[in-house]
């Protein structure tokens, strides 16, 4: 939201006051408050009839500084508020006649009293950003009420990322971003998952702690500032530091919640009924059996909206005309080794048998006169479950428990963005703040009922909407994309932005949701989709099984599904890292290579975990141009070695793409490629890539409970590879990728393989020495 007319003038209708003269700094415990007048005070009489703005600085955990700006603090806040975690923090405060300083870990804020308003944020000795002259502002408008604004410095060459799943350009500089959840598809500035947190390539993050609309002007209103504003008398934000961008995300997710670890079975291929297609058990079996007959490993079958009868979403009852024996059908599908997902949303249509019950018991959101809020968009006469009412939440969860008892393993939690603001909530929550926050309560309720009934690390959603903290309830998917290359690229931008907003796991509708893709788009999107954290074939008006596109599509789905399943030891350990450190599995290049300036703007490629670079192909011809950082990289699929530090142009058929392994990597590859949930450590192969002299590579293999079973470390000293294994209770081997011969192996045996020498460790061996 813009308040200025150019650099000097204020827009008509706004009265802007900035802190101009620091009058006092008062320490209270582990915080201090700066009191600033909005004009220069020359004599005591100047203190009358004027505004005093306050800024309080504190720290909820090391390397995080909280900033609370306020004008009048007496306003009632009915909530909701984001749930934040705090840690014991050694806060150091110093103050003298020139100003004050608060230090938390390696992050500190300095207040200079001699310059009117001069606030700096530093990590060690490096200045990250600051708030200066005309930065903070209390703004009054006769027609719009009051606002609080902050402007933080944006340095030369500094880029801003994140702010949720945004499909606009990956670098947010120059953009206007409103944090307001909308059901807008993937082709506009609107977003399903709005997160008021941004990450800078200078190595810090800024989180604005407001559930309501936060309006950002990112190098737009003022081209050297990031501006954010909210309505009201207060503004609260956090500066989040770290030694690198990964540490910043770790600290942000310590504050707002770590992603849960999805169960291993969720990483396999999902197939859905699609949306508006007709289907019954025979149709479902036709496609499930067709996948099996073609050796296409399938892990999850998803029933989309029309598992319930039309006009009755949600009543949580199977359409008996199409599914007369739902329990038996689910049992028969599960006997084929499948998990089951069912579509839901938080809306109750008037024709649903649950509407009257919800209305009578007060479980639906109301209008000011006590009526049930209703409209006809999506479902005729639909109401909205009031998750601020504990009894309504328990009621909703109980309906889902019935489905779990029938055999449903997870839920696609669709919608949650179209939340009205002219309503009244059971607990008195501010409806404007609830617009974005509603999705947190909705997804938490569904996640909780799954976890309560299936156990910890067995709960998984397929969620569309989110706000701060929603990363705790994975998985999220990218919403309604179109079936073309442009939409495939915008989906990737959205996923990379969401990953830099604290979300670890993300998916998208392979080949696009709207309409039906051409066969080439389908096959290229299959490559991308099966090299994503979660992989789902889903669409709108047509089925997405590969043989409906062409026979080559069947081969592509088979090859890339089996590829992903074979990589589960590597991928599941990456998933554990995501749940512990708050890192995305699909990582923007800047996250892994923050010091490589070329990586700062890349949004057509990504790191899958820390060692695999993926460059999807976005054209029919198979041409791709991608960037490799320094070092010798190896294409995992072809074995071709490519020297990095430059841009590469290649052409690929549908069986390959740039899937490049970082030098000095040890990739754990499983012995099974038919399912995602197997014993990852049993007969695992550790593929070693381009280990340089004096370098060390390490791989960790965990089980499905995230417990470490095997850790292998390889160090190269000249022509000698020294291998150490911890926890080697099961057979394991090392594949020396691209090496055709070795002179000696001590502690194991060797044999030639298609990809390089295979060294099998002797039973119980914890050390190997390989002479090249």
From TrEMBL:
Source organism's superkingdom? Bacteria
**Glycosyl hydrolase family 31 C-terminal domain spans which residues?**
582-667
Q: Identify the residues that the record assigns to the Glycoside hydrolase family 31 TIM barrel domain, covering every copy.
A: 259-573
CDD domains according to UniProt: GH31_N, GH31_xylosidase_YicI
Q: Which Pfam family, just one, is annotated for this protein?
A: Gal_mutarotas_2
The EC number(s) this enzyme carries: 3.2.1.177
EC main class here is hydrolase
Give me the reactions it catalyses. Answer: Hydrolysis of terminal, non-reducing alpha-D-xylose residues with release of alpha-D-xylose
Q: Which UniProt keywords apply?
A: Glycosidase, Hydrolase
**MF terms in GO:** alpha-D-xyloside xylohydrolase; carbohydrate binding
Question: Glycoside hydrolase family 31 N-terminal domain location, by residue?
Answer: 56-216
Q: Which GO terms describe its biological process?
A: carbohydrate metabolic process
Which PANTHER family does its entry note? GLYCOSIDASE FAMILY 31, MYOGENESIS-REGULATING GLYCOSIDASE
Q: Which family does it belong to?
A: Belongs to the glycosyl hydrolase 31 family.
NCBIfam families associated with the record: PRK10658.1
- Name by which UniProt lists this protein: alpha-D-xyloside xylohydrolase
Task: State the organism named in the record.
Answer: Paenibacillus polysaccharolyticus
Its lineage opens with: Bacteria, Bacillati, Bacillota, Bacilli, Bacillales
């Amino acid at each position: 939201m813009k308040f200025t007319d150019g650099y000097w003038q204020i827009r008509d209708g706004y009265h802007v006051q900035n802190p101009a003269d620091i009058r006092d700094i008062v320490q209270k415990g582990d915080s201090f408050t700066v009191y600033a007048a909005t004009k220069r005070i020359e004599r005591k009489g100047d203190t009358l009839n004027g505004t005093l703005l306050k800024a309080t600085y504190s720290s909820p955990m090391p390397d995080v500084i909280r900033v609370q700006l306020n004008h009048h603090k007496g306003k009632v806040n009915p909530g909701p508020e984001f749930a934040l975690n705090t840690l014991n923090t050694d806060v150091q405060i110093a103050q003298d006649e020139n100003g004050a300083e608060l230090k938390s870990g390696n992050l500190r804020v300095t207040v200079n009293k001699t310059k009117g308003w001069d606030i700096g944020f530093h990590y060690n000795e490096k200045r990250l950003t600051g708030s200066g002259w005309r930065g903070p502002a209390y703004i009054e408008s006769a027609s719009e009420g009051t606002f609080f604004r902050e402007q933080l410095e944006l340095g030369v060459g500094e880029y801003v990322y994140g702010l949720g799943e945004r499909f606009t350009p990956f670098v947010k500089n120059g953009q206007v971003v409103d944090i307001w959840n909308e059901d807008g598809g993937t082709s506009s500035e609107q977003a399903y998952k709005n997160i008021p947190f941004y990450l800078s390539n200078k190595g810090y993050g800024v989180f604005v702690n407001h559930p309501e609309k936060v309006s950002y002007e990112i190098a737009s209103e003022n081209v050297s500032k990031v501006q954010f504003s909210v309505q009201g008398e207060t503004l609260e934000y956090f500066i989040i530091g770290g030694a690198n961008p990964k540490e910043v995300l770790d600290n942000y997710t310590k504050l707002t919640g770590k992603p849960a670890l999805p169960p291993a079975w969720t990483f396999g291929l999902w197939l859905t009924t699609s949306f508006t297609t007709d289907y019954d058990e025979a149709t479902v079996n036709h496609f499930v059996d067709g996948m099996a007959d073609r050796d296409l490993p399938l892990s999850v079958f998803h029933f989309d909206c029309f598992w319930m009868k039309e006009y009755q979403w949600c009543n949580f009852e199977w359409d008996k005309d199409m599914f007369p024996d739902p329990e038996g059908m689910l049992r028969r599908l599960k006997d084929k080794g499948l998990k089951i997902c069912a579509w839901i949303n938080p809306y109750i249509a008037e024709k649903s048998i649950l509407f009257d019950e919800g209305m009578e018991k007060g479980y639906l959101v109301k209008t000011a006169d006590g009526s049930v809020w209703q409209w006809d968009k999506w479902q005729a006469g639909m109401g909205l479950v009031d998750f601020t009412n504990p009894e309504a939440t328990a009621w909703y969860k109980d309906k889902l428990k019935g489905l779990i008892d029938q055999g449903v393993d997870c839920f696609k939690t669709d919608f949650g963005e179209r939340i009205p603001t002219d309503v009244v909530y059971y607990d008195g929550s501010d409806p404007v703040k609830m617009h974005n926050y509603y999705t947190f309560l909705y997804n938490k309720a569904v996640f909780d009922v799954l976890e309560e009934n299936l156990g910890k690390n067995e709960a998984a959603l397929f969620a569309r909407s989110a706000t701060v903290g929603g990363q705790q309830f994975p998985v999220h998917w990218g919403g309604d994309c179109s079936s073309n290359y442009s939409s495939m690229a915008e989906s990737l931008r959205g996923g990379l932005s969401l990953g830099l907003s604290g979300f670890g796991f993300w998916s998208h509708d392979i080949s696009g949701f709207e309409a039906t893709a051409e066969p080439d788009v389908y096959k290229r999107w299959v490559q991308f989709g099966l090299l994503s954290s979660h992989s789902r074939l889903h669409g709108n008006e047509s089925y997405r099984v590969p043989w409906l596109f062409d026979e080559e599509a069947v081969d592509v789905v088979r090859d890339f599904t089996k590829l992903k399943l074979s990589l589960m030891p590597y991928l599941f350990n990456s998933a554990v890292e995501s749940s512990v450190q708050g890192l995305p599995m699909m990582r923007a290049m800047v996250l892994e290579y923050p010091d490589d300036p070329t990586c700062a703007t890349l949004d057509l490629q990504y790191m899958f975990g820390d060692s695999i670079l993926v460059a999807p192909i976005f054209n029919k011809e198979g041409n791709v141009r991608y960037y490799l950082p320094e070092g010798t990289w190896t294409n995992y699929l072809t074995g071709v070695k490519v020297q990095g530090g430059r841009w590469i142009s290649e052409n690929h058929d549908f069986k390959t793409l740039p899937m490049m392994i970082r030098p000095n990597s040890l990739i754990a590859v499983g012995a099974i490629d038919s399912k995602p949930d197997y014993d990852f450590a049993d007969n695992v192969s550790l593929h070693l890539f381009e280990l340089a002299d004096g370098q060390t590579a390490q791989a960790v293999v965990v089980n499905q409970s995230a417990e470490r079973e095997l850790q292998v470390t390889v160090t190269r000293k000249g022509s000698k590879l020294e291998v150490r294994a911890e926890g080697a209770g099961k057979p394991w081997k090392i594949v020396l990728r691209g090496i055709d011969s070795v002179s000696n192996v001590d502690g194991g045996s060797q044999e030639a393989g298609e990809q390089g020498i295979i060294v099998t460790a002797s039973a119980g061996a914890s050390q190997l020495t390989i002479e090249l």
